[in-house]
Design a protein that fits this description.
single chain
């Protein structure tokens, strides 16, 4: 009988741990993302730099960039301090993706404080390469 109680307890613990909600990496937004309209308006009104990132939930390289680049404290801090960061889901906002001729994901654009468009930069950007690019804008 003691083996049954130990086994039952172990199974209960495993069940509880698996049932507990686990926060996914993508829900931990270190970057202060804005919607396209809000972000572009803020940048225009305040003459600020823009970081415009196109992604999709199903895109493996978008997910990789989210986990490895945007979850990096130094990247998030630099973006939050120096840019209006805008993220556009191409499946939810197709018309915006069409304006920028986004065909590959992820795709990133930068805008200078005067509104000059720099880009596109298609594909995954590692955190080291991204930091270098951010500092050059």
């Amino acid at each position: 009988m003691p083996k049954l109680n130990w086994l039952t307890t172990l199974l209960l613990v495993v069940f509880i741990l698996n049932a507990a909600p686990i926060e996914s990496v993508s829900s931990q937004n270190l970057v202060e993302w804005k919607s396209y309209v809000m972000g572009m308006d803020l940048a225009k009104d305040n003459n600020e730099l823009v970081f415009l990132h196109f992604y999709a939930k199903w895109c493996s390289y978008c997910t990789k960039m989210e986990k490895e680049s945007f979850q990096d404290d130094s990247i998030a801090e630099y973006l939050n301090d120096n840019f209006i960061s805008i993220r556009v889901d191409v499946d939810e906002e197709k018309s915006i993706a069409e304006i920028y001729n986004v065909f590959a994901l992820p795709t990133t654009y930068f805008f200078t404080s005067s509104g000059e468009k720099l880009g596109p930069v298609p594909g995954y950007i590692s955190k080291d390469r991204l930091m270098t690019m951010l500092k050059k804008v």
